[in-house]
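Note to self: keep these together.
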Amino acid sequence: MGFELNIAKQQQMKNRNFFNGFIFCQIYEKGNNPNPY
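Structure:
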């Protein structure tokens, strides 16, 4: 049980890091190209 919970926690952290990275990339791109269209 504890082992499975640990894996779930790791997966959640991975997803959160990926999401934060995605948001950061979006902001970074917008900062570099204020009006890309």
